[in-house]
Amino acid sequence: MKVLYFAWLRDRVGVAEEIVEPPIEVTTVGELIAWLAQRSARHGEAFADPAIVRCAINQNYAKADESFSRTDEIAFFPPVTGG
Amino acid sequence: MIKVQREDFDVGAELAALSAGRGEVGAVASFIGLVRDVAGPGELSAMTLEHYPGMTEKQLGELEAEALARWPLDRVLIIHRHGRLLPGDRIVLCAATSSHREAAFEACAFLMDWLKTKAPFWKLEEVGGQSSWVAAKDTDEAAAAKWTKNE
Predict the structure, then answer these.
(1) What number is the average pLDDT over the span A19-26?
(2) I need a surface site. Which of A55, B18, B89, B103 has the fewest CB within 10 A?
(3) CATH entry, B2-145, from 3.40.50.720, 3.30.390.10, 3.40.630.30, 3.90.1170.40
(4) Closest by Cα among B85, B6, B7, B88 to B47
(5) Domains of chain A as residue ranges with CATH
(6) pLDDT of residue B123
(7) How far apart are CA A30 and CA A9, in angstroms?
(8) Averaged over B66-81, what is the pLDDT?
(9) Which residues of B touch A78 (CB under 8 A)?
(10) How many residue pairs bridge chain A and chain B with CB atoms within 8 Å of each other?
(11) How far apart, in whole angstroms, are the C-alpha atoms of residue A19 and residue A9?
(12) ipTM score of the complex?
Protein backbone atom coordinates (compact mmCIF):
# COMPACT_ATOMS: atom_id res chain seq x y z
CA MET A 1 0.00 0.00 0.00
CA LYS A 2 1.10 3.58 -0.67
CA VAL A 3 1.91 6.03 2.13
CA LEU A 4 2.58 9.75 1.49
CA TYR A 5 4.59 12.14 3.67
CA PHE A 6 4.58 15.94 3.67
CA ALA A 7 6.63 18.81 5.14
CA TRP A 8 8.95 17.84 8.02
CA LEU A 9 7.61 14.29 8.13
CA ARG A 10 8.91 13.84 4.58
CA ASP A 11 12.24 15.45 5.51
CA ARG A 12 12.68 13.10 8.46
CA VAL A 13 11.55 9.90 6.71
CA GLY A 14 13.60 10.90 3.64
CA VAL A 15 11.01 10.10 0.93
CA ALA A 16 7.76 11.72 -0.23
CA GLU A 17 6.05 8.37 -0.65
CA GLU A 18 6.74 4.69 -0.23
CA ILE A 19 5.10 1.34 -0.75
CA VAL A 20 4.76 -0.60 2.50
CA GLU A 21 3.22 -3.95 3.43
CA PRO A 22 2.17 -3.87 7.07
CA PRO A 23 1.13 -7.21 8.59
CA ILE A 24 -2.57 -8.08 8.48
CA GLU A 25 -3.12 -7.28 12.17
CA VAL A 26 -2.26 -3.61 11.54
CA THR A 27 -5.70 -2.14 10.81
CA THR A 28 -5.92 1.34 12.38
CA VAL A 29 -4.05 4.60 11.84
CA GLY A 30 -2.49 4.35 15.31
CA GLU A 31 -1.28 0.82 14.65
CA LEU A 32 0.13 1.85 11.29
CA ILE A 33 2.06 4.72 12.93
CA ALA A 34 3.51 2.33 15.52
CA TRP A 35 4.48 -0.14 12.79
CA LEU A 36 6.01 2.54 10.53
CA ALA A 37 7.97 4.01 13.46
CA GLN A 38 10.04 0.83 13.82
CA ARG A 39 10.91 0.53 10.10
CA SER A 40 14.08 2.62 10.39
CA ALA A 41 15.79 5.17 12.59
CA ARG A 42 14.47 7.92 10.29
CA HIS A 43 10.90 6.64 10.59
CA GLY A 44 11.38 6.45 14.34
CA GLU A 45 12.40 10.10 14.42
CA ALA A 46 9.50 11.17 12.17
CA PHE A 47 6.92 9.39 14.33
CA ALA A 48 8.61 10.05 17.69
CA ASP A 49 5.61 12.08 18.88
CA PRO A 50 2.43 10.60 17.30
CA ALA A 51 0.33 13.32 18.97
CA ILE A 52 1.66 15.94 16.53
CA VAL A 53 1.28 13.76 13.43
CA ARG A 54 -1.86 14.26 11.36
CA CYS A 55 -3.25 11.54 9.11
CA ALA A 56 -5.54 11.55 6.09
CA ILE A 57 -7.27 8.52 4.58
CA ASN A 58 -8.26 9.19 0.96
CA GLN A 59 -7.72 12.93 1.61
CA ASN A 60 -10.04 13.08 4.65
CA TYR A 61 -8.69 13.64 8.15
CA ALA A 62 -8.52 10.43 10.18
CA LYS A 63 -7.99 9.86 13.90
CA ALA A 64 -5.73 7.20 15.44
CA ASP A 65 -8.56 4.72 16.01
CA GLU A 66 -9.84 4.82 12.42
CA SER A 67 -9.43 1.75 10.23
CA PHE A 68 -8.02 1.79 6.72
CA SER A 69 -7.92 -0.65 3.84
CA ARG A 70 -4.88 -1.64 1.77
CA THR A 71 -6.22 0.25 -1.25
CA ASP A 72 -6.63 3.58 0.60
CA GLU A 73 -4.36 6.57 0.04
CA ILE A 74 -2.79 7.22 3.45
CA ALA A 75 -0.91 10.46 4.15
CA PHE A 76 0.99 11.65 7.21
CA PHE A 77 1.88 15.28 7.83
CA PRO A 78 2.40 17.91 10.57
CA PRO A 79 -0.37 20.23 11.78
CA VAL A 80 -1.16 22.57 8.88
CA THR A 81 0.13 26.16 8.66
CA GLY A 82 -1.44 27.70 5.55
CA GLY A 83 -3.38 30.94 5.11
CA MET B 1 -15.04 28.87 -6.20
CA ILE B 2 -11.68 27.37 -5.25
CA LYS B 3 -8.35 28.09 -6.93
CA VAL B 4 -5.03 26.61 -5.82
CA GLN B 5 -2.24 28.08 -7.89
CA ARG B 6 1.40 29.08 -8.06
CA GLU B 7 0.72 32.43 -9.78
CA ASP B 8 -0.26 35.70 -8.16
CA PHE B 9 -3.82 36.98 -8.57
CA ASP B 10 -5.43 40.35 -9.31
CA VAL B 11 -7.51 41.19 -6.24
CA GLY B 12 -9.59 43.88 -7.97
CA ALA B 13 -10.41 41.70 -10.96
CA GLU B 14 -11.26 38.68 -8.80
CA LEU B 15 -13.60 40.63 -6.52
CA ALA B 16 -15.23 42.44 -9.44
CA ALA B 17 -15.88 39.11 -11.18
CA LEU B 18 -17.37 37.64 -8.01
CA SER B 19 -20.23 40.15 -7.90
CA ALA B 20 -20.51 41.03 -11.61
CA GLY B 21 -24.08 40.67 -12.83
CA ARG B 22 -25.30 39.53 -9.39
CA GLY B 23 -27.92 42.20 -8.78
CA GLU B 24 -28.98 40.87 -5.38
CA VAL B 25 -25.46 41.14 -3.94
CA GLY B 26 -25.03 44.17 -1.72
CA ALA B 27 -21.94 43.15 0.22
CA VAL B 28 -18.52 41.74 -0.65
CA ALA B 29 -16.24 40.95 2.30
CA SER B 30 -12.68 39.86 1.64
CA PHE B 31 -9.44 38.94 3.38
CA ILE B 32 -5.94 38.97 1.87
CA GLY B 33 -3.06 37.17 3.58
CA LEU B 34 0.50 38.33 2.84
CA VAL B 35 3.98 36.97 3.49
CA ARG B 36 5.44 38.84 6.46
CA ASP B 37 9.14 39.68 6.57
CA VAL B 38 10.23 37.63 9.55
CA ALA B 39 13.95 38.38 9.12
CA GLY B 40 13.92 42.09 9.81
CA PRO B 41 15.61 44.92 7.88
CA GLY B 42 18.63 43.98 5.77
CA GLU B 43 18.04 40.22 5.98
CA LEU B 44 16.72 38.20 3.08
CA SER B 45 13.78 36.01 3.87
CA ALA B 46 11.39 33.89 1.84
CA MET B 47 8.58 31.47 2.44
CA THR B 48 7.77 28.30 0.53
CA LEU B 49 4.26 26.93 0.74
CA GLU B 50 3.94 23.20 0.23
CA HIS B 51 0.55 21.52 -0.08
CA TYR B 52 -1.12 18.16 -0.64
CA PRO B 53 -2.50 18.34 -4.20
CA GLY B 54 -5.97 16.87 -4.32
CA MET B 55 -6.63 17.03 -0.59
CA THR B 56 -6.18 20.80 -0.65
CA GLU B 57 -8.89 21.25 -3.26
CA LYS B 58 -11.13 18.75 -1.46
CA GLN B 59 -10.78 20.45 1.94
CA LEU B 60 -11.27 23.96 0.51
CA GLY B 61 -14.33 22.74 -1.43
CA GLU B 62 -15.82 21.39 1.80
CA LEU B 63 -15.10 24.73 3.50
CA GLU B 64 -16.90 26.56 0.71
CA ALA B 65 -19.91 24.23 1.00
CA GLU B 66 -20.00 24.66 4.79
CA ALA B 67 -20.00 28.47 4.52
CA LEU B 68 -22.75 28.40 1.88
CA ALA B 69 -24.82 26.15 4.18
CA ARG B 70 -24.34 28.30 7.28
CA TRP B 71 -24.90 31.82 5.90
CA PRO B 72 -27.20 33.34 3.27
CA LEU B 73 -24.37 33.88 0.78
CA ASP B 74 -24.38 34.29 -2.96
CA ARG B 75 -20.80 33.15 -3.59
CA VAL B 76 -17.55 32.18 -1.91
CA LEU B 77 -14.07 32.57 -3.38
CA ILE B 78 -10.84 31.12 -2.00
CA ILE B 79 -7.57 31.52 -3.89
CA HIS B 80 -4.50 30.04 -2.19
CA ARG B 81 -0.99 30.11 -3.64
CA HIS B 82 1.82 27.59 -3.25
CA GLY B 83 5.52 27.64 -4.10
CA ARG B 84 8.25 30.06 -3.06
CA LEU B 85 7.04 33.54 -2.06
CA LEU B 86 8.78 36.69 -0.89
CA PRO B 87 7.84 39.23 1.81
CA GLY B 88 4.85 41.28 0.68
CA ASP B 89 3.63 38.60 -1.74
CA ARG B 90 -0.02 37.61 -1.55
CA ILE B 91 -0.67 34.10 -0.17
CA VAL B 92 -4.43 33.88 0.05
CA LEU B 93 -7.59 35.71 -0.98
CA CYS B 94 -10.84 34.78 0.68
CA ALA B 95 -14.13 36.49 -0.15
CA ALA B 96 -17.84 36.03 0.47
CA THR B 97 -20.74 37.88 -1.12
CA SER B 98 -24.23 38.36 0.23
CA SER B 99 -27.20 40.71 0.26
CA HIS B 100 -26.06 42.22 3.55
CA ARG B 101 -22.74 42.71 5.31
CA GLU B 102 -23.20 40.54 8.42
CA ALA B 103 -23.27 37.25 6.55
CA ALA B 104 -20.38 38.29 4.29
CA PHE B 105 -18.14 39.42 7.18
CA GLU B 106 -18.88 36.38 9.34
CA ALA B 107 -18.47 33.87 6.53
CA CYS B 108 -15.14 35.42 5.51
CA ALA B 109 -13.80 35.16 9.09
CA PHE B 110 -15.09 31.59 9.38
CA LEU B 111 -13.44 30.57 6.10
CA MET B 112 -10.04 31.88 7.19
CA ASP B 113 -10.26 30.36 10.68
CA TRP B 114 -11.12 26.92 9.33
CA LEU B 115 -8.69 27.18 6.40
CA LYS B 116 -5.88 27.78 8.91
CA THR B 117 -6.51 24.46 10.65
CA LYS B 118 -7.91 22.26 7.87
CA ALA B 119 -6.33 23.11 4.50
CA PRO B 120 -3.19 20.98 4.05
CA PHE B 121 -0.58 23.69 3.50
CA TRP B 122 2.78 23.96 5.27
CA LYS B 123 5.07 26.99 5.44
CA LEU B 124 8.84 26.64 5.19
CA GLU B 125 10.59 29.86 6.26
CA GLU B 126 14.02 30.82 4.95
CA VAL B 127 15.96 33.31 7.04
CA GLY B 128 19.66 34.00 6.47
CA GLY B 129 20.10 30.80 4.47
CA GLN B 130 18.46 28.61 7.12
CA SER B 131 15.15 26.87 6.41
CA SER B 132 12.69 25.85 9.10
CA TRP B 133 9.10 24.61 9.10
CA VAL B 134 6.64 26.97 10.75
CA ALA B 135 4.93 25.44 13.80
CA ALA B 136 1.14 25.45 14.07
CA LYS B 137 -0.29 27.88 16.62
CA ASP B 138 -2.68 26.99 19.44
CA THR B 139 -4.39 30.34 18.84
CA ASP B 140 -5.37 29.15 15.34
CA GLU B 141 -6.95 26.03 16.83
CA ALA B 142 -8.85 28.18 19.32
CA ALA B 143 -10.04 30.53 16.56
CA ALA B 144 -11.31 27.58 14.51
CA ALA B 145 -12.99 25.95 17.52
CA LYS B 146 -15.24 28.94 18.15
CA TRP B 147 -17.12 28.15 14.93
CA THR B 148 -17.84 24.56 16.00
CA LYS B 149 -21.55 24.00 16.40
CA ASN B 150 -22.85 22.76 19.73
CA GLU B 151 -24.79 19.63 18.86
Answers:
(1) 97
(2) B89
(3) 3.90.1170.40
(4) B85
(5) 2-74 (3.10.20.30)
(6) 96
(7) 16
(8) 98
(9) 122, 133, 136
(10) 70
(11) 16
(12) 0.95
